[in-house]
Every structure is written in C-alpha cells, then in structure tokens.
Fold this sequence. Notes:
Elements: E1 2-7, H1 12-26, E2 30-37, H2 58-75, E3 81-85, H3 92-96, H4 107-121, E4 125-128, H5 133-136, H6 138-157, E5 164-168, H7 172-181, H8 192-195, E6 204-207, H9 212-220, H10 223-226, H11 229-237, E7 245-253
Parallel strand pairs: 1-2, 1-4, 2-3, 4-5
Antiparallel strand pairs: 5-7, 6-7
Zinc ion binds next to loops.
Amino acid sequence: MKLLAIFAHPDDEVFSCGGTLARYADEGHQVSLICATRGEEGEIVHPDMEPNSYPKGPERGLLRVDELAATCKALGISPPIFLDYQDSGFPIEVGLQNPQAFMNADIFKIEEKILDRIGSIHPEIIITFDPHGMYGHIDHITIHRAALAAFWSAGSVMQPAPQRLYYPARTITQVEEMQRRFAGSSNSDLDPNIFGVSDDSICAQIDISGYADRKRLGVYAHRSQFGTEERINELLDGRPDFFRFETFVLGGARGGFPADRLNDLFDGVS
Ligand SMILES: [Zn+2]
C-alpha cells in the first residue's frame, strides 16, 4: 500500500514521524514525501559550515534539498517531491515581509498542487501536521490547512481517494516533560494544553524501536540545522521516547475506523 507524508520544510518529516516512514518503507509499502518549501530561511548551526557560503534564499535551499535527499535515503523512502514554495522563515514577521513566502500563497492553489500529487500517487494514508503545526510555525499551519482540504476534496475528484489522514501528536504529558527538560528553549514556551493532546486522543502508537538507527541517521543528515552528531545525540538523548514510538491523532477517515488504539496505521485499510 501507499503512504504520503506532506510537510513544509526539510527536517519536519524526520522529527514528526521519521521512524514510522522508515518502518513502512521497510515493510514494503511505497512511502512518498511532499515538502512544500526548500527551507531557504533555516539557520545554519553546524560549526564547520559557514552561513555566508550558503546565503538565505536559493543557495541555502539547495543545501537543504541535498540534506533532505540524504534523510530520505537513510529512512529508505522515495526521494522528496517539492512544491517549489519559498520558506516563510520564523518568526512570522519574516514571512510578512515576503510576498512570495509560502504563508502568503493562495491556499486553493496549494491544495490543487497537493491534489495533483495525490492523484498520481494514490496513497491510502496521508500524514501531515496537526492544526497547531506542532509548535506554531506558520508554514506548518499552512501545509496542514492545504493538506486537510486536499484529503477531503480528493473524494470528489478521484477514486479511490485516500482513506486515512493522521497527524503526528504529542500528549500533554509529553509536552510538559519537554518543557522540564528543555527549559529556556523554544519548546519551553509551548502551552501543553494547546500543543499537546489528551492520552485518549491518541489513535495510533507506532513502535519504531527497530528503526531508531535509521531515524537517527535521518536527523544527522540535516546537519546544517542541528549541528554535529555529538550535539544531536545530546539533544535527543534527553527524549527517550523519540526513538521508541511515534504517536498520531486521526485527522479524517473514509470508511470505518477501529475502536481501539492502533499499533499499525494501515489497520483496517483495504
Ligand atoms: Zn518546519
């Protein structure tokens, strides 16, 4: 069967659900990834990389395209499909200055582009950001809105249409725990009751412990964004769940959905 992940920037995929993507590719499913932008506004933190050598804009985008291609290879999924939008940057004021930024694009046009790709891939399952974009990035919220619209409008323009839409999610407890561990970081400002969900809302918990190495390699590939392997290990070793399981909430379903929490996103999909 086929799974399509739809995100905004290079690195969104591996942090949201890299283990799940690796697992399904390994189990013989076709796993594709749409990335709306090339992440042209990302900050370079690797000490061996000179930010001025890759100025924000097309040059930085090319660097990140290569990094995402390496991540896809590490995860064992198909090469990324880009929608060719421009990264809006962070905070939102950056994108407000740029009429070409993804956040300023026509939402119906984005939906149409996604529909085109859904029409050629025909995935049973789609994964995208939740309505809060994991931590509120405007591009994450924008891709959520367009992918959600495309999931539903697909039903009137193609058969078969995708059957399930999932959002990677963290529980309130997980967000609280991150705040404790990473006091002072951007994650520590997140309100757990907005950016986390109740335990009962989790519809699927995917065991990715067998794919921890691939996920780690997938994160390493985004070296401009996260730095040396030592730095990444330090960052991630404080999040033991990161390599054990990934959790999802249901964004939409065509047909029935099992009553119990799933340990396989394809459970009940025909
Ligand atoms: Zn992102």
